[in-house]
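thread: overnight batch results

M.L. [08:02]
morning all. the overnight job finished for the chain we discussed friday. pasting input first so we're all looking at the same thing
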Amino acid sequence: MQIGELAERTGVSHRTIHYYERIGLMAPAEREGAGYRYYDEQSVRRLEKIAVLKQLGLSLDEIASVIDLYFSDASGIKGKEKVLQIFEAQLAKTNTQLGELTAFKTDLEANIARMKGLIQSAREA
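M.L. [08:03]
and the structure it wrote out:
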């Protein structure tokens, strides 16, 4: 199929497909006779998998690190294990950030209380 049909079937623009080829998420399309690019069903499946992984919140770099696993392992287990590792790393980072934000919030609340006290003292003087 040509890029227009691929784009229509997957809901991904021509431009995005070309971009995915440039960054290695998609293999460059085969060119035939007149120089048109032709895509196969695996291209459809690959774009669909990229869309699912994007919906899960993975960045394009993260998708690049996992996408081939889904197509080299028919069970999909290796891809899922890699996604799980990414999620676990994101969770650990989020927990660290939450701890830092909680400490910052506590400091802000203390500073607000202190400033209110200073203002109240100045008004009473």
